[in-house]
Task: structure prediction
Amino acid sequence: MTSTKKDPVLVVLQLSGGNDYFNTVIPYTDSRYYDNRPAVGIAEDRVLKINDKVGFHPEMAPLKAVYDEGNMAILHGVGYPNSPRSHFRSMDIWHTCEPDKLGTEGWLGRATREIDPNKENVVTTVSFGPSLFRALVLPGVPVSCVDDLNNFGMLTGIAEQDQRSKIIDRFSRLYSPTIGSGFVMDYLGQTGLDSLAAADILKVAPQQYSSDVEYPDTPLANKLKGIAQVHMADLGTRIFYCDHGSFDSHSNQTGMHDKLWKDVSEGVSSFMDDLKAHDVGDNVILLMFTEFGRRVHDNGSGTDHGAGGAAFVLGENVRGGEYSEYPSTAAEDLEQGDLVPNLDFRSVYSTILEDWMGLDAQPLVGGVFEKPQFV
Result:
């Protein structure tokens, strides 16, 4: 837990689209890596080596600096059995912790209810971006969804309504086909008024914020800067959520994947520098995850949907290093040509919920899972 009495805070960065684990944490001394990546493989002399077995993608230098400081955990082989290799279904599993059936309750929606059971603070959980992430959804639990913090709560009535309509429309289009429009509209109806109240609370954050840290001018960096602003405003927000992507690299992966990790690395590094500069980072951890990894053998210009992937946890109170084992790359150990997960994603959640947030993980993730000790 934290070294102070401040409430622990969780920031989640969703790497949407299926990040290529094999080209992110690269087993550069494994000849099978190069055998399987004739088109998109990264030359050994470009790999940012962290030990004699693996290294980071060359655009991850800012994150390697965080790792070298001992503040970044690499979680190998994260996933679940029998991956469907479908973006929507896989992300739904990650969001609801229901691998065997269609879930309707987000794991962080449940966590929000535990943190604030009486709905005393409508900004306990804040999502950045033009969507309401399924992980945050639980009927009756308010979540504030911010598309642009600089405008949120300070727009004219019509413009503000347009922003809300865009968020609601995207949520409805994402989830109505699978969980039904009735559930979607019931959820929005129950939480809409609470979420509206958040505008007046959150609008103070940019006004109070001042920093010498220069963030890159990218969509992700802008989201992370907004998270920093709300966190520094001390509004009682305990959970933040945002995403970046798409990491769906079926073609033209070289260059595309480079740009994605450049944006992630620079944005996250700036965010952590900002928190440290203001001495407000000791009660924050950041989880980065993706719905699945990519196929081991490339397809000629990219990589197709896979199974086992990697997650990362960063923060001043994170026990840096590698957790779990890199899945075997031997052909006989692959499953449908994919790395086999060996660390259940609910294990990662359980560590965060219990050892960081101070909650009982079992009812929130639907079971008891061995916890890697990264906090």
Confidence is low (pLDDT under 50) at residues 153-159. The two ends are 7 Å apart (CA to CA).
